[in-house]
Structures are given as C-alpha cells and as structure tokens.
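Protocol step 4 of 5: obtain the predicted structure for the target chain.
Materials: sequence only (see below). No template structures provided, no constraints applied. The aim of this step is simply to have a reference model before the mutagenesis design in step 5. Sequence pasted as it appears in the construct record:
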Amino acid sequence: MDAAMTTREPLDAGRFFAPGDRSVPVMLQAQANKFGARPLVQAGEQRWSFAEAPEIAARSAGRLRAAGVGQGDRVALICENRHEFVEIFLGAAWLGVILVPINTASRGLQLRHILENSGARLLVLEAALLGALEHIDLATLPLQMIWIIDPPGGANVPPIARPLPALGEVEPAASVRPSDTLAILYTSGTTGPSKGVCCPHAQFFWWGVNTAHLLGVSGDDILCTTLPLFHTNALNTLFQALITGATAIFESRFSASAFFTTLAARRATVTYLLGAMVPILLSREPEAAEQQHRTRIALAPGVPGHFHADFTRRTGIALLDGYGSTETNFVIGSPIAECKPGTMGRLFEGFAARVVDDDDNEVPDGTPGELMLRAEAPFAFATGYFGTPEKTVEAWRNLWFHSGDRVIREPDGYYKFVDRLKDAIRRRGENVSSFEVEQVLLSHPEIATAAAYPVRSELAEDEVMAAIVRQPGSRLDEVAIIRFCEARMPYFAVPRFLEFVDVLPATENGKIQKYKLRERGITDRTWDREAAGITVKRR
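Step 4 output (structure tokens):
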C-alpha cells in the first residue's frame, strides 16, 4: 500500500542542502568551506581533503575542456578503484559532462553496445584493461579520443589513443541543476542489451543522505569499501562522505584473506559487503584479525539472513540489509536496532511502494508480487534509460517504477525479497522460487554458495538445476543433497540437475550472473537424478 505522504522533506534533508543546491559543484564548494582540511577521499595512497576537492574537480574539468569536451557530452571510463577514477568523475560533474562508468569486465558485444548507445566522445581507459578493446572496431563508434591511464611503453594502442593528460587549468563550475544527468550506469542485461540508467545529481544526494542515516554515519566515520566505483554502491559511499563530513576510502578490490587486516589498517568504522562476500568470509578459518578492527557496521544487501548472527558473533560487525537499485535509491531498510534477519526492512520515509500482480493490482500482505516504487522528492530516482524511450515507458508504466523483483510485504510492514521475476521456474504446472531453493541449499553446512535456475527439459518445460560450491574439504554428494532438499521444500522444487563447480560466475560487485548459468545449461559434468534413478517423495 502507499506510504503516507509527509508535509516536510524526508529526514529534513534541507538541513544538508536546499533542493536547488543538490548538484556536485555546489555541494563540493559548500563542504570545502565547512570541513576544510578534513580528508574526504582516499584511493590507494592518494588522499584529498574537502578543501582540496573543488580544485581537483575544477582542474580535471579544465583537462576535459581543453580537449573540447563540453556540457552534456558523454565520457566513458573503464578503470579500477584508482584516484584517477574520482578525478574524472568529479571533473565531469563540475563541467556538466555525463560520465559513463563501465564495468571493467565488459568485453565484446556488450562493451561495443555501451560505447555506441552512450555516444561517448572520449574513453578514459586504464592501460591494464586495454585488452577490453579487442574485437571492437573503434572506427564504427562515435569515439573521437582515448586517454590511457599509465600507458605502457611500446604497447600496441589504438591510433586515437594518447596518455592521460595532466590536470588542466582551473575551470569555473558549470551551471548544473540537480535534475541534470550526472552518470549513465549500464545495468547487466539478461534477456537483452544492457540499459543505460540516467542518474541525476539529486539522486546521488538522496543515496548519500538515506544510506548515511540508516548506517548512522557521522563526520567522525571512516568508510572503507572494496566494491567497484563503476557501480552505484561505491559511488554512494562517496556521497555519504561528502554530505556528512566522513572520509571515503576505496580499496582496489575484495580480498577475503586481507579483508579484516585492511579494515584495521584503514581504521575503518563502516564497510560494505554484498551477497556471497559474507559466506566467503565465514568459510575461512576464524582468525584474530576478525576482531582486531574498529568497524561497527556493514551495509550488506542480499546477504541471507541465516549468516547475520554468525558473522556478527565472529567479527563484531553488524550487518544492515536493505533494498535499492540503480534506477531507484535506498528505499527499503531499517536502522540496525530494528532489523529482522531474512527481511530487507521497512519502507523508508520519502518513498511509496506497492506489491502487485501482473496487472499492477495490489496483492494482500503475505502474498508475493512485483515491487513497484515511487519517490516523493524530485529526481530522487533515475530519469529513465538512455536512448531507449520504449524501455523507460515499460519500466515506469502507470507512473510507478517496476523493479522486476518479487517480494512479500509482511503485515508488520517488513519486506522480504523472494526472487527476480525472470528467475521464476515453471515446473509441472507449479511456480518454483529460485530464491527459496537457494535458501534451502545454503542452509546445508557443507554448501558454501549455490544458484538455482531453470533449464529446458525434454518436455519443453523448465527443470530445476542448481550449481553448487561446496565448503573446502567437503565430500558432500548429489544424493545427500537431494535427500536434504526433499525434507525441506516442495517435491516439485527439488532440483533434478546438480553440478558441483569451483566458483559461480559473478559481476565485479559479487552479483551472481545467472544468465551465464542458464546459457551454459546442462554440461557433461551435470548430474541428473532421474537418470540416476533417484526419486523424490511427495511429502
């Protein structure tokens, strides 16, 4: 049901910035005056204070301006968590240029689509990632320039490439409105090409305000993330720091063996985890470093509820679940004292939500349905998909954003994630939730992680298949898994096909890429319980 409308802005956001001031150039200058020499951002060993940030942004903008890049142009960026990423991001924002951060794993048709669809004139590329351009005919793209970060001597580089220029002359801040697009973030495509989500300046303001509130971030905090800056989560970390006066530290990548020692070395008080990262950390032997840090809380969306208590007991770090997407904001979540493991939390103030059927009619509490969302504040959500108006109309039909996620709203107002609508499996006339299958599998002590997905059977319908990563040293076999599932889920949901794998395909931020598993389907390593003569009882 709809959230109650308020007569004031959520969280009294005006105490941070008035609605007309929610653009990066205005916020950078205001916070420089407010926080001065306090450190704002660190990437690697490069650190900038709040006072230094506007000049970094202005000189980065000057570099772009000198190359003929102007307001409204798109600049693509393929780069790990380096200080150059932040420089270019802030410079683009200062100049009113739209940044297109691209997943460093993008290759081939996907990368070509992003560069073509975005119409980027300039690509800034880390030298170590030059291989991403293989099999792409650059001459057929709108690209006019490529800047290489740390160019290798003597390497083969495209003719239009040159080393990343030094920071330029100070460029005056452009007249940028909160509604202007700050970045186009391409979401992973499953049934079609990736879609470019147009994210305005004000959307990132609200990401920072809402997330900082739920995490309890203050100016004394040090925020440390290993998640990639080309996704919303890490960019959100930057805005949490900018708005509150905290410090944001960006590590190069997630390392299970070094995670806790890194938190200690950075004196981090807040960190960020996703999905499989928590079970990966828990699968390691306990070590003293798990308790030798200052970190009190982690934003951890998508971590199964049964891991929360064990992780907090071992590490002293509370896990905060929640819901948000690139198109929306932090719309569902509760302060840690009100969290219920296994749920995402309550609807956050400033947003409205409905759980609906296929025709957008609301369903009763306790009934699964698609989550639809609205924002009360202007431009707290994305404004649409770049260059694909038909996809924008489809996603925002009836003036609600259709998330594509199946959830349950409980009578007490807490929301539970069920699965992606496209992950639903139809077998023997029954709908099977891949999420529920996975939760049963993950509850087995010898299973580290798992993914359930549909494969086609000889009857031209779905069969349930699961790819499973066993805990180190486990000898768990397929029959034992079937018997375990048989007692814990409906008979029609028990997987027919199982395959043990060493690792599941995942994005840089840890999201399992089920479309790759579906495309791979049944292999010569797949075990078929029907072929093995293993039957499942109807209980």
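Step 4 remarks: Residues 201-215 form the longest helix (15 residues). Residues 42-176 form a domain with the Rossmann fold fold (CATH 3.40.50.980).
Proceed to step 5.
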